[in-house]
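I have been asked to look over a protein record a colleague put together. The record follows directly below this note.
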Amino acid sequence: MLKDVWIQGMPPKERGFIRRCYGGGLAKYSERLKRIALVGVDTKVLDCGCGYGQWSLALAKHNKLVYGIDIQEKRIQIAQRIGKELLVDNVLFQVASAEDLPFRDNIFDFVFCYSVIYMIDWKRALQEIFRVLRGGGDNIFM
């Protein structure tokens, strides 16, 4: 699934991380999402700090629409390429900061933020997450 041409020129540790993420497919991520009940029929989900998109693509299998944002353009480009390769058409990736989300208020049913919040201005990011989340923050998974 993962084409080495997509990760050429990246540092070895980064290439290894991407290979580990996608090496076994997305089933392991999908199973974890089922265990925490982050699946829905008509849900819109934000993957805040999506990195290379492995969680976003797994979320797309179980939810109506997924937005994956990350501050690093290279990560978004790789996530987009993998999404196209897997024929996933209900996930949208874009470069954006968790501290200044480019979405209107009350738009997402769930916000998923895995292993990111400690690397950013968490107070500002949480304000933004609560702003875009329907229900005032009941459905946040970190």
Observations:
- Residues 67 and 92 are 5 Å apart (CA to CA).
- The first strand starts at residue 44 and ends at 48.
- The chain has one domain: 26-141.
